[in-house]
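Lab notebook, design round three. We kept the backbone fixed and only want residue identities now. Task for the bench partner: fill in a sequence for the structure below.
Input structure tokens:
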């Protein structure tokens, strides 16, 4: 258990450092080459896949998609699992994550990419809210699912699917010209740190509840 806590702490710190690195980099203009290389390369690979990207984005990466998936998970935790602690953690993690992202966006004040956006956006760019909130939602959902799985194959499959979804919608945000790659990387970073904090809170209260 101690080793697991150390691993989670390490992941959380790595995520936080990733965000800090890109936050410093954008303030000094050092992400231009990084952003251009990834954006151009991704644009070439997905040049004829805009319709597919829009479909993927709508399914797993848009705000509406997040809300639908979050509601399904909330119902699952509350009605099926009856894990009200997990339910509270998920809701507060998402709401506090959204507020944190809003504060960080206003603080950095980075505008969206100047190229034509393939979906409608209105807020600032850094760090990506979709990357951050999506990672929180899908990672915590996977964590709660994994708690009930004993099969190694099913656990690996759940982990792989979660990583795949997070990675795909992150790429779609860049390909749709609504984010720089550094926005996505920073959103992932701060999202990982936030997830580790809320997993720690969940397990802390779970242990206390068992002692009562």
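Proposed sequence:
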């Amino acid at each position: 258990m101690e080793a697991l806590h150390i691993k989670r702490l390490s992941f959380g710190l790595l995520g936080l450092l990733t965000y800090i690195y890109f936050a410093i980099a954008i303030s000094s203009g050092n992400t231009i080459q990084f952003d251009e290389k990834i954006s151009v390369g991704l644009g070439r690979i997905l040049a004829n896949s805009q319709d597919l990207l829009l479909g993927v984005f709508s399914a797993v990466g848009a705000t509406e998609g997040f809300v639908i998936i979050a509601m399904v998970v909330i119902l699952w935790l509350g009605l099926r699992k009856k894990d009200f602690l997990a339910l509270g953690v998920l809701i507060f993690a998402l709401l506090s994550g959204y507020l944190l992202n809003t504060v960080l966006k206003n603080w950095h004040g980075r505008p969206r990419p100047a190229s034509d956006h393939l979906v409608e956006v209105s807020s600032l760019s850094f760090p990506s809210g979709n990357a951050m909130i999506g990672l929180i939602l899908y990672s915590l959902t996977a964590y709660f699912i994994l708690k009930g799985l004993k099969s190694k194959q099913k656990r690996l499959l759940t982990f792989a699917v979660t990583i795949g979804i997070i990675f795909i919608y992150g790429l779609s945000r860049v390909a749709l010209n609504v984010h720089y790659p550094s926005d996505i990387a920073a959103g992932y970073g701060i999202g990982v740190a936030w997830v580790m904090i809320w997993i720690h809170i969940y397990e802390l209260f779970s242990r206390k509840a068992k002692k009562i």
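Keep this in mind before ordering anything: The CA atoms of residues 43 and 175 lie 6 Å apart.
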